[in-house]
């Protein structure tokens, strides 16, 4: 288990991390989500042992990362946002160098290089210098150095930043596969990334955790969760009054209408499913029900609402002081 307990860090009087605590079990891909400057990277660097916290503790599978960062780092693979690479080296030469640094020698090192090149789909560029690689292959090479020693914990800071859709898919597939057996902490400000690979999400704003849940549970907090867009084979004038009687209805909008059909948007005030009520009403009134689409919730809307609310609270608190 990776355990972070009440870590705090300030730079020149500015609070970057303010009492962050969480625990992650094996087999979890945890999305560490927040706006730029929220404290994500600082938290990652503290966990990785590159920064000491002002207060708090980090335990990496039982090793105190604050008291003994070197021992903790043996259990961690770290992919920073801008991983340093040696451009004049080939991919194989770079991984050979990483192997030596990690204590691999002889046949064990050569065998591990082959395994890593296969895992990260680097065979086509194995003998190519890093300076000549595409962004996608450079990122896979960075990923390869992070997992060379087969660490049980992976810290990935913006792992798909700047990649095209195909390159992103390759990296995401790698994360999903490794996430079955490792603890993975993935720091990002990209919501698409969280929805694609994460089984759990922490949202951080102004150095504090403001949400900790699964992506699905967070979507349920969206104001559009279980909203329905319905196409009926009756005119709006016939359907609107009856639809407004649906329980807990917060919003009704006629999107399209003609003499025979209408398309209506309906949003519940409490997140309850409207589709069953709509089906029942259509059967009762003998309306042709041509289409029903139920909204699964908007993670970006939840993210904006949570982080803006936290910013407003913090600004209010600062003003009060």
Task: Provide a compact summary of the structure.
This protein is α/β, with parallel strands linked by helices and 321 residues long. The chain has eleven helices and 14 strands.
Count of DSSP helices? 11
The global form is elongated
Class of the largest domain in CATH? Alpha Beta
Q: Give the helix level as a range of percent.
A: 25-40%
**Radius of gyration, Cα only, in angstroms?**
25 Å
Largest sheet strand order: 6-7-8-3-9-10
**Helix-strand string:** EEEHEEHEHHHEHEHEEHEHEEHEH
User: How many domains would you count in the coordinates?
Assistant: 2
How many DSSP E strands?
A: 14
The fold-level CATH name of the largest domain is Rossmann fold
Can you give the mean pLDDT?
91
Beta-sheet strand percentage? Answer: 25-35%
The main sheet comes to: 6 strands, mixed
């Amino acid at each position: 288990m990776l355990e972070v307990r009440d870590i705090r860090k300030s730079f020149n009087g500015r609070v970057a991390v303010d009492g962050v605590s969480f625990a992650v079990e094996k087999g979890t891909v945890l999305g560490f989500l927040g706006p730029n400057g929220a404290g994500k990277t600082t938290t990652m660097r503290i966990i990785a042992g590159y920064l000491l916290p002002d207060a708090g503790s980090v335990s990496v599978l039982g090793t105190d990362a604050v008291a003994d960062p070197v021992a903790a780092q043996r259990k961690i693979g770290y992919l920073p946002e801008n991983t340093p690479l040696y451009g004049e080296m080939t991919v194989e030469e770079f991984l050979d160098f990483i192997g030596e640094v990690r204590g691999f020698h002889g046949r064990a090192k050569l065998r591990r290089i082959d395994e890593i090149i296969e895992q990260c789909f680097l065979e086509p560029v194995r003998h190519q210098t890093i300076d000549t690689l595409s962004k996608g292959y450079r990122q896979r090479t960075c990923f390869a150095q992070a997992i060379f020693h087969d660490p049980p914990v992976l810290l990935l800071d913006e792992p798909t930043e700047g990649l095209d859709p195909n390159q992103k898919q390759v990296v995401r597939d790698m994360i999903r596969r490794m996430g079955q057996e490792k603890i993975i902490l993935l720091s990002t400000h990209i919501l698409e990334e969280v929805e694609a690979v994460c089984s759990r999400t922490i949202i951080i704003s102004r150095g504090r955790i403001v949400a900790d849940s699964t992506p699905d549970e967070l979507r349920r907090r969206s104001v559009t969760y279980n909203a329905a867009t319905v196409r009926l084979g009756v005119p709006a004038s016939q359907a609107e009054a009856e639809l407004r009687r649906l329980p807990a209805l917060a919003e009704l909008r006629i999107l399209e209408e003609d003499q025979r059909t209408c398309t209506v948007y309906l949003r519940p005030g409490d997140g309850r499913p409207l589709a069953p009520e709509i089906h029942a009403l259509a059967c009762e009134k003998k309306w042709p029900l041509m289409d029903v689409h139920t909204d699964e919730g908007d993670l970006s809307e939840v993210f904006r609402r949570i982080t803006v609310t936290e910013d407003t609270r913090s600004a209010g608190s600062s003003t009060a002081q």
